[in-house]
Amino acid sequence: MNAPFYILSIDGGGYRGLFSAHILRRMEEAWGLNWHRQFGMFAGTSTGSIIAAGLASNISAKELSEFYITHGKKIFRKRWRSRLDFLKILTSKYSSTTLQSLLEDVLGSTTLGQVPVPLIIPAVDIGNGCVHVFKSKYADGFIRDPGVKLSDAVLASCSAPTYFDPHVVDGKYQLVDGGIWANNPSLAAAIDAQYRLKVPLSDIRVLSLGTGKSKTFYPRSQGCWKDWFIRSWQGWGFATRWQRSKLLDLILNLQSDSAHNMLCLLFNESPLASTRVFRMTFDSDQCLPMDAVCHGDDWITRADHCFTHNAPRLKEFLGLG
Questions:
Q1: Could you tell me the sign of the dihedral formed by the alpha carbons of 168, 174, 177, 183, in that order?
Q2: DSSP letter at 236?
Q3: CB within 8 A of 226, min separation 6: which ones?
């Protein structure tokens, strides 16, 4: 019997990435994990790509957790133009300049071709209308972007529509958040491990970290004058509550759920009782904005609870005794 091949997969979710980063920090502190020895592949989308790229580059989970705590307010500082309602249609909510500078500070000049372990970062090429998957050089003869800086790949994956502008990479690719098609990159990573690394499907194990799921996106109003208007015209405008950022959050959540379900079915297991996919996330009855830096303490508290509750089973899943 072959040793299990572990994949670490981290969802997108904006500042809620602090939840995932803190869980990994707790794992690191409790078990002294060497990430490169424990996991054979890293995959991260959007905010998850920051964490996955960091771990793949030998940056500790503690440092990555502190990255969110220290820099969250700088990253999600509104443009002055977006404070004027009538100009919101002309610009994304935030400038990516600060995030780009911080990523360059953390990841340096490292290129994808220099990353020492298998790494997958999903993005979307809106110029050509197709997916764009950044990969480190782990499959002979198969790497498209060896000279692309890791910080550029991460910024592209983090460029969520409406939140940040698209990021141009290599002077030819206009890229946005990979969460549009792979907010939960676990399925893409497992398939690539099987196809490119020739890992038998039966050997693959996935630790999949989510960033929370809201159960409340578009609650129905009850007994107010707005009901008549909403029922009268179910269009897609702001007036009918299909706000652009809330709609994006809904799409990303649906993708995360469907990817998890399909991965478990690929393993011939129930998504509710998988032995080969260890999913850690949380549900909330409240909306979970991607940019709510003020909720940082809550994400840490939830991460502490999630780790404490799951630690015995997680330790066994990872074969740590």
A1: negative
A2: S
A3: none
Segment 40-68, tens digit of pLDDT = 999 999 999 999 999 999 999 999 999 99
d(CA 91, CA 79): 9
| Token pair of 119 as six digits | 């790494």
Confidence at 162, pLDDT banded by 50, 70, 90: confident
By residue range, what is the domain housing residue 179?
Answer: 5-317
User: What's 15's domain CATH number?
Assistant: 3.40.1090.10
Percent of the chain with pLDDT over 70: 85
Look at the block and give the residue holding tokens 């500042």.
15
Residue 166 near residue 126 (C-beta atoms within 8 A): yes
Nearest to 236 by CA among 223, 224, 247: 247
Nearest to 193 by CA among 6, 2, 13: 6
Q: Are 174 and 166 in contact (CB under 8 A)?
A: yes
Sign (positive or negative) of CA dihedral 175, 179, 181, 186: positive
